[in-house]
Amino acid sequence: MVKFGIGQGVLRQEDPRLLRGQGLFVSDINLPNQTYAIILRSPHAHAEIKSINIQKALSLEGVIAVYTGEDILADKLGVPGMPAKWKRPDGTPMKYRPQPPLALGRVRYVGDPVALIIAETLNQARDGSELVDVEYESIPSVTDTEQTIKTDSALVWDDYPDNISGQYQSGDADAVESALANASYVIKRRFVISRVFAQYMEPRGAIGVYDQREDRFTLHADVQYPHRVRQLLAEKIFSIPEQNIRVISRDVGGGFGTKGWQYAEHRLVLWAAKKIDRPVKWTCERSEAIQADEHGRDNVSEAELGFDSDGNIVGLRVNTIANIGAYLSAIRNLLAVFSNVGTLIGVYKVPTAHVTVKTVHSNTNPTAPYRGAGRPEATFIIERMFDEAAREMNIDPIKLRTQNMISSDSMPIQTVLGLNYDCGEFTKNQFEALQMSNYSEFAKRQKQSISQGKLRGIGIANPIERAASPAPDFAEIRFSTDGSATILMGTKSQGQGHETIYKQIIGDRLGLEPNEMRVIDGDTDRVAFGMGTMGSRSTVIGGSAVYFAAEKIITKATKIAAHQLEAAVEDIVFKGGTFFVAGTDKEIGIREVAKASFLVSKLPPDVEPGLYETATFSPVDDTYPNGSHVCEVEIDPETGVVKVLGYWVVDDVGIMINPTIVKGQIHGGIAQGLGQIMMEKVAYNKSDGQLLSGSFMDYAMPRADNFCTIEVKSNEVPTKRNPLGAKGAGEAGTVGAMPALMNAIMNALEPTGVTSIDMPVTPEKVWRAINVSSS
Ligand code: MCN
């Protein structure tokens, strides 16, 4: 077995550089003659802009330019566009409400950009921004998701009668109606999924450059999808050929789905760079980020799950109100809303289901994908419903799950919400996770806690998600004349460890050592094409692309090797980086073949010189990572503090390229799930829409002491949907963690009579719930 190949838990190649502070993030990039930009943002949730006076700011020393929405309007920049053509519940078409890069006449959330101030230094730009005089007239606002559709709600857009932007439906409404009408039990519950923010380590940044000589823009930005950013800017915003824009994304300090392709700042720095003919750099401060960026989740659902008298599911109905924020700029703002509702089915046999999602506007930041993008929300509902149903029907929750579980031998299976599960061992995952957690002894542990005045609970969740949906991505392997190789990828690492895994795949296929390869991503001039990294797709799609590029290299190199070894192509065997003539001791290594490929004298006549190949891979269907999470908690009823005592996962992400990285991904995902359940929340003041959680003083983030050791075991069930047998892994942890932890908390609270607490489950909420329900 090669030392640096598929399945090896080798250490990450990028870490020495990143851990020593040698990463190259946007704020590390400084260009000659660069200027600095500050974006003045709305302090109001909803206000008319009566006037903007920029004169004082312009007269400040060092200030180069101050721009407002009118300047953008005058230059006729385009908008991203909306391919979805949904209807509103009243049948009228969904309205497209893109966010202007700088506000025009009205601001619609705290943080809505109002003016762009450019100066010689950052401090001068900041001082200048304080001198921009904006006269606002505050008007009523709405931030609360359920309030948006009430008749007395403030309206975000004057021409919307009810703040409802559109409606998405999936499944069979009539069949569900009849299934629930005839069910022996129908469990109905309401679930709130709170609004959170990615809080990546690197707040966003962008540097715009315009080269007059070449009439060409360059954007340096921490984005997940460089090529799509370029496409949007070229096609929709500036109406110029894509070749006139280069997007470069070097190290990215976390993205989590939220470093998207449509941010106004990308347009602003490029547009302004051309106007002032100097590079313009904007970097976001931590407290600006939560105002500037898209948020995640934020919805309220009512779910009904029907069972027959034997405890078999007969139907599922879910009605959701999803808060998409003030603007609807691109399909991206809808992705988390509709693209993963299919996973509401979970790993269970659900004969009929219907889902309705109403998207509503509010005076909040636009929402967009955030780790899981609808999957944790969906899994939360089905897995919470199982526990609630088990309690109401007085059946063991594990038994209820098991009897309704899809069996391995019934797959592939087309679910009633349109997903096409291909493989997985759901019962085995659950069985092993329960064993790891010593579930059968839980009652004893619970008794012990109770004897010490504590509450103890255990929760399970069996997540499944769709990952790596059909869409192409690209890889290129370029050998140099010395036999080393450059690998160019269309995906974009934000911390996932791509440099390592792509080298592992090539190490495995071509036998190269890691130090003989260099991985390049995030540069639209160097990489031919890419869709970028999201939806846990890079391993499956980028990895398969690089796999196929390696296959093409082998095919061509085999011909060269045969010529060198004076053998027939059919007699050549390739293994571990060496070409052998079968049955002889004649061999040549791939490096020597690569060198020979550039020497015409060493090539057979029908072979073109050089050794470089590209491949673009698009899977025919999704992969379905799945698993089982068990979580155990103890609650102190005196303080309401929830302590996570144990966390066990059995995960099936198919064949793992790097089990160590997968474990890290699962751990990180769980941390984000636990954070959301226990403490994270973007909070607004209901009366005036003020952002209350504007910094880490108010937005609680989980720390190491909120966790226990997380034990992860893998059950690799390979998928046949890609040559690696891999399924996505980047979101799996979050998908399972939210319901597992909430189920554990609610299980612990059962003796107190508390049946529901909305996330985040803070000590205060727990304490109040216990004291209110027991009084
Ligand atoms: N992997 C593997 N074998 C598999 C599947 C994955 O070895 N069968 C490993 C690979 O090493 C890969 C990593 O797990 O580097 C994640 O792979 P994959 O599931 O393909 O996900 P992507 O690389 O496409 O990353 C996207 C995913 C998403 S959608 C979010 S959100 C998220 C996540 O990754 N954002 C992250 N993990 C993150 N991790 C970091 N550090 N930063 C983010 O912003």
What's the overall average pLDDT, rounded? 97
Q: Looking across the biggest beta sheet, what order are the strands in?
A: 3-5-1-12-9-10-11
* Structural class computed from helices and strand pairing: alpha+beta
How many DSSP H or I helices? 19
Cα-atom radius of gyration: 28 Å
Give the low-confidence spans: none
End-to-end C-alpha gap:
65 Å
**Ions, cofactors, ligands: which are bound?**
pterin cytosine dinucleotide
Shape: globular
Largest sheet, described in full?
Answer: 7 strands, mixed
Question: What share of the residues lie within helices?
Answer: 25-40%
The tally of strands reads 28
What share of the residues does DSSP label as strand, in percent? 15-25%
Task: Characterise the protein shown here.
With 775 residues, this protein is α+β, with helices and mostly antiparallel strands. 29% of the residues lie in helices and 23% in strands. The strands form 7 sheets. The protein has a 7-stranded mixed beta sheet with strand order 3-5-1-12-9-10-11, sandwiched between helices. A 5-stranded mixed beta sheet has the order 7-15-14-13-8. Strand 19 and strand 20 (485-489) form a beta hairpin. The termini are far apart. It binds pterin cytosine dinucleotide. The site of pterin cytosine dinucleotide (MCN) has 35 residues, from helix 14, helix 15 and helix 17.
